[in-house]
Amino acid sequence: MELKSTNQYLRMTVRFLEVAHRRYNVGLWATVAVLLSRPRRGRVVVNVGELNRLLNDGDVAVVPGKVLGDGELSKRVTVAAWAFSKTAISKIKANGGEALSIPELVRRMPKPSGVKIIT
């Protein structure tokens, strides 16, 4: 798959996910790479209020897009995303959760189990 983005960090992240998919034989990383390869207007945008509704306490989730700070988060979750707003990071950390980059999550959990993709 050829990514036409001019954002060098995005291109490196997609390549990193493709290599992780081949190395660990995990389809989740290939799926996240495809979702990040979409045009900007087709990428996922999720508010922390929606994360609160979709996730349970202690869940790990991947957002192949941006997490915004609208809404309230009352659960302790680990969220990996392409980008976070400052408000989203503060709300996630206020409950004892973690906000990670996608490559950080891959390094921590190369063969994930129970990781949810939020689209």
Summarize, please.
The protein is an alpha/beta fold.
3D structure, described in words:
The chain is α/β, with parallel strands linked by helices. The protein has one domain: Ribosomal Protein L15, Chain: K, domain 2. It has 5 helices and 5 strands, in the order ααβαββαβαβ. Strands 1, 2, 3, 4 and 5 form a 5-stranded parallel beta sheet that branches. The chain is globular and about 35 Å long.
Q: Write down the domain tally.
A: 1
Query: What global shape is seen?
Result: globular
Structural class: alpha/beta
Radius of gyration: 14 Å
Any idea what the CATH architecture is? Answer: Ribosomal Protein L15, Chain: K, domain 2
Strand percentage lies at 15-25%
Give a topology summary:
Blueprint lengths: L7 H17 L2 H10 L7 E4 H7 L5 E9 L9 E7 L1 H9 L3 E4 H7 L7 E2 L2
Parallel strand pairs: 1-2, 2-3, 2-5, 3-4
Helix pairs in contact: 1-2
Using brief descriptors, characterize the structure shown:
single chain; 119 residues; alpha/beta; Ribosomal Protein L15, Chain: K, domain 2; five-stranded parallel beta sheet; 5 helices
